[in-house]
Fold each of these.
Amino acid sequence: MTNSVISTTTDNTTKNVVFVLYDYVTLVDFTGATEVFNNVPNFVLHWLAPTMDPITTSENMQVLPTGTFDDAPDEIEILFVPGGNFKGIAASMFDVRYRNFIGEASAKAEWTGSVCTGAFILAAAGGLTNCHATTYWSQLHNLSLLKDKYGITVDQHHYPRYLIDAKQKRFSGGGISSSIDLALELAKRIVDNASSQMAQLFIQYAPGPPNQSGDPSQAPPEITKQAIAMQTGYTAHINEAVMQLINE
């Protein structure tokens, strides 16, 4: 995947962005960020998985990888791990193919990070060690349980759209839609602000939701309570995977 955006910078160096795909990944977690990076000059996008088999997303849609892990470029500007359904998260956390690829790729990538529950896959591969990180709002407690093993610091009482650990060149995003904000911030830091602004304009990203209910600090308490109840099983499954990881 390449783009043809008119450059606002004189840097024509190819910048490879690698998205790690797995069954039950959430569409917007990677397609939102893909759309942003596709509108930044000289970014080349790669959707990679262990095989070229179709990926079934959490929305029960199918997408095709652009290559396998063996096709990963030697130089990676951004390694991006999206979130997904608990089945995909748990399976990928303990799949040696994902652990090995993410571990090796993150060691050479300029920037490495996740959005939403992709943080658990990245953590299991050692990619968030000693970092300040965030994840989907209802799973902040589960991520905080990895502090002793991996040194991950989590603020359970705030819900940032994204966090940047500039010292370690790590990033993490909140829930699904935050992948767009995160990608725009990375474009700003890696290229320049004008390129980030141009990408935002091209995709007409000017959010004006009909409600301010995007996280527990905004949503009415009764809505948040209902959402938590609806996610009880999801949270329990993520917790089970986290405890398994801790006890390895």
Note: Residues 15-246 form a domain with the Rossmann fold fold (CATH 3.40.50.880).
Amino acid sequence: MSRLEPRLLGIPVPRIGPESVPYWEGTRLGELRFQRCDACGAANFGPGLVCRKCRSRDLTWTRSAGRGEVFSWTVIWRPQTPAFEVPYAPAIVRLDEGYDLLTALVGLDHAEISDGLRVCVEFHEISPEITLPFFAPDPEHR
């Protein structure tokens, strides 16, 4: 059994651009944020200047409940750099609000991952500026 845990030390740190500041401010506060289009109601992620569905510029930052399901994943056994301890499981999580997020799964054995696995967000600080969202099994659906 190989329990998946957050890898925090030495991993590459994302650069914060002006359009993503509200997202990163939210993660530091323990909030997962996304943009909702005021014109058509579509959820938009990652941060952008226009709606991906209707091209409106009327986007509002909204707090996500942080729950969703595993849409796609892989388990890495051979890291690209030594900073990534194996195994780790990058995944696409489809959030209940209707957007997909590339993340990593934690808090379970790699053999427990399956399509549709219900997960919830947990936050881990990797630097004073960056707190990353990871996803663990949702205790309400175990």
Note: The mean pLDDT is 93.
Amino acid sequence: MTTTGFTPLTAEYLALDGTNFSDHVESAELELEADEVDYTNMGSGGWAEKKGGIKAGNLKLVLQQDFAASNIDATLWGAFGSTLTFGVRPTNAAVSSTNPEYTGTALVSKYQPIAGKVGDKAVVTISLPTTGTVSRATS
């Protein structure tokens, strides 16, 4: 059996405010959703009818912390309380139909720059709600 379209996440791409931070990513998840708006009426034949409403997204990241200039801490701290741009794709390869890039703007409303106990690797776990449109490019 041949599996087509299978992409293991081994070299995920992440850019924040135009800087490639792929070498700091432990995990990245972009979750998108649309509100369910109920349009059920007496003509619906006893079945619920739904349409998509307001869309929203959330970018969840686990990053290896880096306090060097222009790195993870500087970028997230600089955007704290405001927004930053993001781009994510399955691999570091060029954008294509099999490696789409999702881009948008996210709000940095919470930031925990330091967490852990003695001997732990310094990581940042952050959840960034999208604001505005999230786009998908294939070229």
Note: The helical segments are 72-79.
